[in-house]
């Protein structure tokens, strides 16, 4: 008879499985992949709950956007109020400027009328002609003055000559009177 020796014919994987086996091939808990009991008990959300969560999330986002838009609306309202005030200020300035311009136009018209009546509104040709006429008159008066001075000089000479003759005659009359006496 042949005898067989009992040599275990197991592989290392089988030995590992067998060591982990508890209660008729039910694996024991693996420490590496164990999850807490709460996670096992946590229910998988239904499709309705997922939609509800999405709705609530979107609702919050939209609520924030609405708040931002309301804040922007308020800021824009303030900006509009500021711009209205600036527009009113500019309109008042424009009206004042237009009144000042109208006043200046009236003053300008009055000034032009007074210049025309005073004869100051002449053209340059008219001024040149008037200046030439005045220069001609001045030259004539200058000539008359020189003529008068020359005549005066002549008359003074003749006066001196006459006075000298008169003195000479008086001296002769005195001489003749002395001789008669």
From TrEMBL:
Coiled-coil boundaries: 52-151
Entry keyword annotation includes Coiled coil: yes
Domain of life: Eukaryota
Key words of the record: Coiled coil
Listed PANTHER family: AMINOTRANSFERASE-LIKE PLANT MOBILE DOMAIN-CONTAINING PROTEIN, PROTEIN, PUTATIVE-RELATED
Protein name from the UniProt record: Uncharacterized protein
Species of origin: Gossypium harknessii
């Amino acid at each position: 008879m042949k005898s067989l020796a009992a040599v275990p014919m197991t592989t290392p994987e089988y030995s590992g499985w067998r060591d982990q086996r508890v209660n008729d091939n039910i694996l024991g808990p693996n420490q590496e992949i164990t999850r807490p009991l709460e996670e096992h008990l946590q229910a998988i959300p239904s499709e309705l709950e997922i939609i509800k969560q999405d709705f609530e999330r979107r609702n919050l986002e939209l609520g924030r956007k609405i708040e931002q838009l309301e804040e922007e609306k308020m800021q824009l309202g303030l900006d509009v109020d500021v711009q209205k005030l600036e527009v009113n200020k500019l309109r008042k300035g424009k009206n004042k400027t237009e009144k000042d311009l109208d006043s200046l136009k009236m003053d300008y018209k009055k000034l032009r009328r007074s210049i025309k009546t005073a004869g100051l509104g002449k053209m340059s040709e008219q001024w040149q002609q008037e200046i030439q006429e005045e220069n001609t008159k001045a030259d004539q008066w200058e000539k008359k003055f020189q003529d008068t001075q020359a005549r005066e000089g002549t008359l003074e000479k003749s006066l001196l000559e006459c006075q000298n003759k008169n003195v000479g005659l008086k001296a002769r009359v005195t001489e003749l009177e002395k001789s008669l006496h």
